[in-house]
Amino acid sequence: MNTATLLEKQARDLPDKTAIVHNDESITFKALDELINRLAHYFQRRGIVQGSKVLLFIRPSIELPAATFALFKIGAVPVFIDPGMGRKNLLRAVKEVAPIAMIAPSSVQMLARVFRPSFSSVAIKLDCAKILEASQKEESSFETYDAPEDEMAAILFTSGATGKPKGVVYTHKIFITQTALLQQMYGLTSNDVDCPCFPLFSFFTLAMGLTSFIPPIDPSKPSEIDPSAVVATIQNNNVTFAAGSPAIWMKVADYCIAHDIELPSLKSLVMFGAPVALSMHEKWQKVLPNGTTYTPYGATESLPISNISGNYILEHTSDATCKGAGVCVGPVVPPLEARIYNDDEIIVSGPVVTTEYYNEAEATRASKLSLDGALWHKVGDVGTIDEQGRIWFWGRNSHVVDLEDRKMYPIPCELVFNQLDGIKRTALVGPIIDEKVVPTLVIEMEDGSTRMTDELLGALQDTRNRFEHTLPIELFYLKRSFPVDVRHNIKIDRLALRRWVEDKAI
Prior knowledge:
Elements lengths: L3 H10 L4 E5 L2 E4 H17 L7 E4 L6 H12 L2 E4 L6 H11 L3 E4 L1 H9 L9 E4 L3 H4 L17 E6 L9 E5 H15 L6 E4 L4 H7 L3 E4 L12 H10 L4 E4 L1 H13 L9 E4 L6 H10 L4 E3 L2 E3 L2 E5 L3 H13 L4 E5 L5 E5 L3 E5 L11 H7 E4 L2 E12 L4 E7 L4 E2 L4 E2 L1 H8 L5 E7 L2 E2 L2 E2 L2 E6 L8 H13 L8 E4 L15 H12 L1
Parallel strand pairs: 1-10, 3-4, 3-5, 4-7, 5-6, 9-10, 9-11, 11-12, 12-13, 27-28
Antiparallel strand pairs: 1-2, 7-8, 14-15, 16-21, 17-18, 18-20, 19-20, 20-21, 22-23, 24-27, 25-26
Helix pairs in contact: 1-2, 2-3, 9-10, 10-11, 11-12
């Protein structure tokens, strides 16, 4: 069993079809498979073998999937660490994994020399800008390693948005199963065309036979992208499928509406990383005459768990969301199973649930359960499952505000306030002031204002008093902008906001 066999099949079935287009370069599936084979030989000759852990720091390009699938073919273990997680976390992650090799640009190679202790295990350093040329003389065929289904295939680090980043161990069986589930969820075929705004997601669509048009953006900074570049990629190539952070699609939606642009070719727009505002789905309804938005629910440790369309949300669940029910993320994707554990914690079991964190035995024990003879993963989120089997998301477990007589869940509270005019988003936090937890709502205005007017305060208080679950909120603060996660630029760092309120209260 090997993930690389999925691309091999596309090379056999669709040899002359374009696989990837990046800038002015393109490559067919047959040529991509041959490139992968040559890279596998080259990596082996440089000392990378079955079981070798290899750090990959490669920007979106033809080189990224080519190098990744070449490592899969060898049986080596690519390691993906988000550079945006911060220097301290990045260096700690590298040291913990102890990779033998690194494929990265020269700038990262220099970083490795500066922080030598963290990179001391790295004996093989390859410049990603030179690997294609260096592999040209290698053979174009390669015998793919047949891995046991439970053998480690890759390590993907969590973003660390709510704690220390951890390396999630993936197997080839998980990758292959994920590909099949995602293809079924979105009804994708080789006739579809992809615009990958989250690089790793394109591995799945390539394995399905989709052509991947890489947009000219920096996916590590999704909130800073040029929306016109994404729109041009979609329009010029009749893109039918696109996926990425809501921070990207928020800017693209606003750009399209401002310029009266529709995207008729786009059938499925997938947004993940954080709850998506109802207004986002409403905006995209104006832009997608032949398609809809989707917000799959999952985590690095278990993806996908559930899926729901924007059209369904606006027709069936938005009213309940506006009244404090939380965000509906849809029914569980078969054959997965989800349950509510200890009253409010979401747990999940099934073939895409990972079994461990790399070298993190304590974290593994804390997040895994054995129930009814099956392995279950604690997603780290709270919520409920209704009579129709739909999951309702209430927030992260670490963001729940615990009072003596009740729990206050962030998402159900925040979404009733987010409907007020002028408010961009809100965050419920529980600062400790005078040795007491004080439920507090922090507000980010659309115009960045930090002036609390009597009119705004009155509207906030009236809204609080309308709902039983928001009544305990005592304080309201305005903040010019919210701290967010580094991967998707959309998850609110509520723990940082809590500390901010505590500092202001001193």
